[in-house]
Design a protein that fits this description.
Helix content: 25-40%
Order of helices and strands: HHEEHHEHHHHHHHHHHHEEEEEEEEEEEE
Structural class: alpha+beta
Distance between the termini: 41 Å
Strand order of the largest sheet: 9-8-11-6-14-13
Number of strands: 15
Number of helices: 15
Shape: flat
């Protein structure tokens, strides 16, 4: 069992961010210098008496040469850092260190080389073990998770996963999906899939998508619930293939792109594209063979359709859900008017969801067309805007207006949904509004918005429904 603890695969390269791992390393090095100077100056004194708790006294020993009985040479060749350690403290914090220093197979080594962990991440793990402090940075959290998994420090590993879940977005979901599978973190994997499904087009067009491995690529291309046009899936696969050619030091030719994609090309549901997208895009990409292109054209147009290696069944995508906040609507005798004013409402949810759009009321006196400026804000900052037309048939039905992409909504935070309408002045409006609405497993709460200048509030008005994915 002890031998298996050290057989961990190469750590992932963490995604870049504004936090510099070099600055973290320099800061920790400055801390150890300050500690050493402080203790050195007090070596003839009772320095232990300055710190009332064992945690504080252990903290003094963090990255400190005093009483160090082991050293670690951490990092790959050319980027190593020599760090002091104390076997007893490390063994108390990690079963792997306990086996390393006090187990049956323990070796009496003064210096231990750890080439597969970056120094800042090893320091972050040591800081947790010595100081009971969790100090994570987006630039190093994946490597810190690797270190916490390797040395079996479960609470630090959980904190890393929580950090990743909090920072999860369409930009990094594909990369984190790959790493969550590597680290065997099913909760993080599930969260990644939720983001990728709901915001598929953003995720597929992100730079991080090109960094995933072939297994992760295939799992995404197989995904039945991807909420994306198939042409976007095809273009993303070609972008990945170009990046993979560079990783394999191959010229990014059409032939090599097809080569690195391999059988994954058949996971793209090309026959489900709109004919125009296929004709102007996939058919002219050069990635398909002449026979494949011809057969797919026949699939689109011929009564006697050929057999294809590509899946011909469209993806199911995600079924949108609707949160309706009114119990009735009014019309005719007491119509709602607009005149360019804003209708707005605030809402919050208890679980993370993705707002795809709104449903709005329309004209109460015959069919009419409306221009709608819809907006979603968080703490006054716009998250999504769109100007869109919709047609009202004169009924009391609600009519959908959609954002370009679903917007991720975090729990326990109020967001503002707004619309400014231009069109027929007389329309239906909602009545008997509810402050709390249960939609499946998601609870919505509503409150009035100061942005609302046309009378919409919790009890009545416009924006009767929020369209969302959960």
């Amino acid at each position: 069992m002890a031998a298996q603890l050290f057989a961990v695969s190469k750590p992932p390269t963490p995604p870049s961010s504004g936090c510099s791992s070099t600055s973290v390393q320099q800061e920790e090095q400055q801390n150890v210098t300050n500690n050493n100077n402080s203790i050195g100056a007090q070596s003839c004194c009772n320095w232990q008496g300055l710190y009332p708790s064992i945690r504080e006294r252990n903290s003094v020993m963090f990255n400190n040469e005093m009483m160090a009985d082991v050293h670690f040479v951490v990092g790959p060749p050319g980027g190593t850092q020599r760090l002091p350690g104390h076997k007893y403290v490390l063994a108390v914090g990690s079963s792997v260190f306990h086996a390393m220093f006090y187990g049956e197979l323990a070796e009496d080594q003064d210096e231990i080389r750890i080439p597969d962990v970056e120094p800042p991440s090893f320091l972050a793990m040591m800081k947790y073990i010595y100081c009971d402090e969790i100090d994570l940075c987006a630039d190093t959290v994946l490597a810190t998770l690797y270190a916490a998994k390797k040395y079996i420090v479960p609470h630090l590993a959980r904190a890393c996963v929580n950090f990743l879940e909090t920072s999860l977005s369409a930009k990094n979901a594909c990369v984190l999906l790959s790493q969550s599978c590597l680290f065997e973190e099913p909760d993080l994997t599930q969260r990644c899939w939720e983001v990728i499904d709901a915001q598929a087009e953003l995720a597929l067009r992100s730079e991080g998508f090109c960094d995933i491995d072939i297994q992760t690529l295939e799992s995404i291309l197989r995904r039945e619930t991807l909420n994306a046009k198939e042409m976007v899936v095809f273009e993303a696969a070609l972008n990945w293939a170009e990046a993979e050619c560079q990783r394999q030091e191959l010229p990014p030719t059409i032939e090599n792109k097809r080569l690195v994609l391999g059988k994954a090309i058949y996971l793209i549901r090309i026959p489900t594209m709109v004919l125009e997208d296929f004709a102007n895009g996939a058919a002219q990409s050069g990635v398909l063979t002449l026979n494949e292109t011809n057969d797919i054209f026949l699939w689109f147009t011929a009564a006697n359709k050929p057999e294809l290696l590509f899946c011909t069944k469209p993806r199911k995508g995600l079924a949108p859900q609707r949160c309706h906040r009114f119990q009735s609507c009014a019309y005719r005798s007491n119509q709602w008017r607009y005149r360019g004013r804003c209708d707005s409402i605030q809402f919050a949810v208890d679980k993370r969801v993705f707002i795809a759009g709104f449903r709005l009321y329309g004209s109460s006196c015959g069919s009419a067309e409306y221009n709608a400026k819809i907006e979603l804000k968080r703490q006054g900052v716009p998250m999504a805007q769109r100007i869109i037309k919709y047609f009202s048939d004169g009924s009391s039905s609600t009519f959908a207006v959609w954002f370009d992409h679903p917007v991720q909504i975090e729990p326990d935070t109020f967001y503002t949904a707004s619309v400014v309408l231009d069109g027929n002045e007389l329309s239906y409006f909602g009545q008997e509004g509810m402050t709390e609405v249960q939609c499946g497993k998601v609870t919505f709460q509503f409150q009035c918005s100061s942005d609302s200048t046309n009378g919409t509030g919790v009890q009545g008005g416009q924006i009767p429904e929020l369209i969302f994915y959960a």
